[in-house]
Amino acid sequence: MIVLITGIYGFLGSCLAEKLAGKHHVIGLYHVNTKSIDSSITVYDSLEEINTTPDVIVLCHAAVSSGSHQENSDVLHNANVHFTQKIINKFPTTKLIYISSVSVYSNDGSIVTERSTDNPQKPYAQSKLAAEKLVMKHPGNYVIRLSSLYGKGMKENTLIPNYANQALQSKNISVWGNGGRYQNYIYIEDAISFIEKSIDCKSMINFPLLGVADKEYTNAEVAAIIAELTGAEIVYTGEDKALSYHYSNVLTQNTLGWSAATTLADGLKEYIEWKEKQY
Length: 279
Hints:
By secondary structure, this protein is of the alpha/beta class. It has helices at residues 11-20, 73-90, 123-136, 159-170, 188-200, 219-230, 250-256, 264-276, and strands at residues 2-6, 25-29, 42-44, 56-59, 95-101, 142-146, 148-150, 172-176, 182-183, 185-187, 209-211, 217-218, 233-237. The strands form 4 sheets. It has a 7-stranded parallel beta sheet, sandwiched between helices. It has a two-stranded parallel sheet with strand order 7-10. A two-stranded parallel ribbon has the order 8-13. It is globular and about 55 Å long.
């Protein structure tokens, strides 16, 4: 099977490519050809260069606003919406798997499921939902909404690497407020197995698949796991007005026969062991 991965040099794209290369003929797309992944993978730096028709395209490309990094609306729309449409136009009959985000949901305090209301509040989430709608116009395509993705090689601008860097550098972890905010984290290996299931699935799915772990953790719990792994102390400071989120993806689990297998403690242990080698 020929699998095209867009955004192949990103965190998810590169990890996915390395896993799939042993099973499929993987090709990649990225706006610049910057590094080597697997010697069997051909990476293109423009859509126009691709002269073969893939069997499946996993759309990992994205302009991202998260943590301390924020893109403007035009950049988000061009990368997340306009470029997605260009791919659809070039490969109208190819199965597409679009990697989206749980940020498209509203937060009314209820447990979020696949059937929950979409109500994106920020430009990034709005652009992701717009791209989802383009993809889902074509039967046989899938949308995957992931919660906070973490693991070896992740970007540095979100909570887990922030806590890890503090712990390893100063042996202190600053946690805003009382640390009571709940968030959901999915380990990179679980996300990859989820996508593999989606590639193999032949069912017609007319709802967004929800890629989340089985439980949420407070910021204080995340800090406590990292503190135990590193010998750091936790310091509570200021206040945190951010909202908590809770999820249930029973429909996705039943549809794909998949569930996240990695506990947060195990995933963070592997991440911290990798992170320590970076210092």
